[in-house]
């Protein structure tokens, strides 16, 4: 029985044995997914902000920031039986929903994507596909049986990576 | 964290409710002038909403909404959204422009009209708020998006994202015929703006 596991905003989850991970309404947030095709273990993070260095809270939610969410999720996947060398990554989201010139916080989408890519490179995890940027929202699903990432948007319908 | 404690103070929440009341009241008047028929509005709600639940206020993360977003600049910066459902938007356009509109598609003229409506309403909301608080608050040029509610609203939460996992939302609904929701206003002041608003209004202890 395939289960649909919902990943909330500033949250990550892992899945195996045919379960599907889903997160809805990615705007400037980034959906970062990792997959081990041999162990059939999948992970999905819904990342809101690039770096925990900007956190102004003492005990922050590590799933919110790219630089803390990725290592945590990676560790959980390895603990569940994934091999670090087999992991591949896919990215979706990081849109710029509204255009405002010269406002740094409004460029958060592209910055989220850049930081995820930097983190992946530093962990030696290959990024094999992405659907990022532009100005529209995305809902994504990752199938732990196949590693296929399905991306749905209002304007462009459904596509698979 | 002191900011979160402040939001437990009933009196301060009432002050913020009044802020929403005054702003949205003026905006509702502006809208009823545009439409040439009365527009009611709900009593504002002020609540600390977990990020996860914010999109539920407009029908869920994947609900398609039309949103006019603008950034509030000046003494008490923040984010503002005017959100309308597609059927309400089409009705608004028919009443305003007297043109036959098509479901699910928008001409440049319609988009521009919706953007302008958002602009007028947000402008009247903010100018009444600025008068009331004597704080300088000016809207940026508005930007319109038609997309998933989750994708749109998360944009207004980034300033709060660095502080925690919830945002303080001042919400007002516009009603037509008492129960049909015409549109919603969300004002999300930046975390630093609350102190300024409270101080400007002479709230004790601020």
UniProtKB/TrEMBL annotation, chain B:
Any single Pfam family the record assigns to this protein: CheC
Domain CheC-like protein: 13-47, 109-144
UniProt xrefs under SUPFAM superfamilies: CheC-like
Keywords annotated in UniProt: Chemotaxis, Hydrolase
GO aspect biological process, one term: chemotaxis
GO MF term set: hydrolase activity
Entry-linked PANTHER family: PROTEIN PHOSPHATASE CHEZ
Protein name, per record: Chemotaxis protein CheC, inhibitor of MCP methylation
């Amino acid at each position: 029985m395939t289960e649909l596991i919902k990943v909330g905003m500033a949250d990550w989850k892992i899945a195996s044995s045919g379960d599907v991970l889903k997160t809805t309404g990615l705007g400037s947030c980034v959906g970062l997914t990792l997959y081990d095709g041999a162990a059939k273990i999948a992970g999905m993070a819904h990342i809101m902000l690039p770096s925990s260095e900007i956190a102004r809270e003492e005990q922050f939610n590590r799933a919110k920031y790219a630089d803390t969410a990725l290592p945590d999720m990676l560790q959980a996947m390895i603990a569940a039986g994934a091999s670090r060398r087999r992991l591949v990554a896919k990215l979706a989201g990081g849109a710029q929903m509204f255009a405002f010139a010269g406002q740094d916080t409004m460029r958060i989408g592209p910055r989220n994507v850049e930081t995820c890519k930097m983190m992946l490179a530093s962990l030696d995890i290959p990024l094999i596909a992405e659907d990022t940027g532009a100005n529209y929202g995305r809902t994504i699903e990752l199938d732990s049986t196949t590693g296929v990432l399905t991306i749905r948007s209002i304007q462009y319908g459904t596509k698979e990576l | 964290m002191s900011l979160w404690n402040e939001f437990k103070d009933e009196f301060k929440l009432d002050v913020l409710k009044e802020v929403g009341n005054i702003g949205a009241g003026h905006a509702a008047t502006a809208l009823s002038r545009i439409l040439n028929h009365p527009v009611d509005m709900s009593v504002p709600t002020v609540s600390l909403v977990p990020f996860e639940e914010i999109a539920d206020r407009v029908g869920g993360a994947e609900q398609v909404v039309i949103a006019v977003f603008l950034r509030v600049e000046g003494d008490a910066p923040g984010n503002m959204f005017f959100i309308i459902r597609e059927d309400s938007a089409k009705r608004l356009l028919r009443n305003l422009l007297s043109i036959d509109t098509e479901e699910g598609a928008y001409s440049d003229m319609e988009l521009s009209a919706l953007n302008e409506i958002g602009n007028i309403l947000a402008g009247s909301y903010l100018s009444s708020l600025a008068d009331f608080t004597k704080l300088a608050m000016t809207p940026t040029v508005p930007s319109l998006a038609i997309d998933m509610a989750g994708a749109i609203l998360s944009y207004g939460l980034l300033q709060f994202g660095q502080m925690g996992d919830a945002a303080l939302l001042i919400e007002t609904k516009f009603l037509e015929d008492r129960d049909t929701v015409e549109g919603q206003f969300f004002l999300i002041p930046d975390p630093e703006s609350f102190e300024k608003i409270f101080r400007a209004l002479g709230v004790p202890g601020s």
